[in-house]
Amino acid sequence: MSVAAKVRRFLEELSGFLEEDQVLRDVGSAPPGELHLELTYRCDSRCIMCDIPRREKNQRRPDISLEEIKRTVDGSDFLSNINYILLSGGEPWLHEEFSDMAVYFLERFPDARL
After folding, report:
1. What is residue 41's three-state secondary structure?
2. What residues contact 110, with CB distance under 8 A and at least 6 apart?
3. Disulfide engineering: 31 pairs with which of 69, 73, 79, 81, CB 3.0-4.6 Å?
4. CA distance 46 to 51
5. What is the pTM (predicted TM-score) of this model?
6. pLDDT tens across the length of the chain (114 residues)
């Protein structure tokens, strides 16, 4: 079952508590206003409440590149309404392209908060 189908099913189950028609219409029609990206899973902090060091050890993945981000964001009409951007992950400052990514998002979405 797709994620969208799971969300719709979940919302349908809540219909006794919510105005179902309005919720289902809002979920399917409005583009997101926020964009959250995990740029890297690398982190040089070892915060006691965080599981990134464990994930980093067991699931080493390459960092997302600026080119991948540009290709995805520039190719999406769905991301036209972004007004808030969160760049996170492990420690985003460890990403070699972090500054370039920040500049890209500030230029691409000049009215958004970064």
Report:
1. coil
2. none
3. 81
4. 9
5. 0.67
6. 776 676 666 666 655 554 444 444 555 566 788 999 989 888 888 888 887 777 666 666 788 899 999 998 998 888 888 999 999 888 899 999 999 999 999 999 999 999
Chain CA centroid to CA 42, Å: 17
Q: What is residue 60's DSSP assignment? A: -
CB distance 94 to 38 below 8 Å = no
Nearest by Cα to 79 from 8, 10, 30, 12: 30
Residue 66 · residue 104 · CB < 8 Å: yes
Residue burial 85-94, b: 16+ Cβ < 10 Å; e: rest: bebebbbbee
| Closest residue by Cα to residue 87 from 52, 110, 63, 62 | 63
